[in-house]
Amino acid sequence: MVTAKAQAEDKATFTLSGALAGASRCVPIEISGFAIGLVFGTLAKQAGLGTFEAAAMSALVFSGAAQFVVLGLWTAPLPVAAIVLTTLVVGLRHLLMGAALGPVFSKLPRLKAYGSVFFMADENWALTMGEFAKGRRDAAFLLGGGLLMWFSWTVSTLLGGVFGSAIQNPSRWGLDFAFTAVFLALISGMWKGRSSILPWTVAAAVAVASHHWMPGQWYILLGGLAGSLAGVVRRGV
Amino acid sequence: MVFETLLAIVLMALATYATRAGGLWLASRLDLSERAGAWLDQIPGAILVSLVAPTVLAGGLAEALAAVAVVIVALRTSSLPAAMVTGVGTVVVLRAMETSLL
Q: What is this model's ipTM?
């Protein structure tokens, strides 16, 4: 079984049909993503960013979590160092996510691998890991979903800035839960029986505790690290 | 565009890209020993559980029940859109019930 898995991991393709599959799987999530982009565009304007500036931020940074958090820091004079440091901290979970792509993506030409990860967000990364877990190895899946999300995020920010958003509070429409639901569905497909119990319990406990006692987004990184390490230790050293 | 705004946005972009590319770069330099591979295998599940745990376990009754509904639909249908619609629909109804009861 180990050799079969190793053989499967030796192959990594990067095809147009993989990209299209990635994009089409992201469409339902993007209904929520678009609404949240409208809200970001609206709030960015209230925080004093121009519509073009907000859209440029969405296109270049492409990270909803980081962008919403820095709006709270957007005062004159602009605390540039604090904004950049906060962005870095919020983005730290990407280190783990990128590492998880490693076994497949390190087999791609560099331009494809390092170009694709610019478009790595929580949602298309999660869908891609779901694909890899099923043994499919088309790395363009990430890029296809990411390009759709990037386009939608930038355009919805622009529209939110120009027209404002009719949806001021996405949680009233359950739109905040759309992402949770998609992640839960993917988790259901990753269950590996009893060996998943310990790492997932540790991840959940550490995430809930860090979310409660620490500010910001640390809970994702800390829960992910603790859970994945617990899974390795359990296997025996 | 004011210079400070442009500077902040460009530096934010560089910081975010560094975290996105950094993990991949580190993983390609780990000798893929069996242990490192086993660790990388555990990351997706652990990150996804961490992303949802505060909402599902410490969010409220509506979120917890909607999560159960999502998992049941996901396991039965293996359909992502069906699971998403179930989750959003259930949470909207239950939150409305919570609000009207309180």
A: 0.89
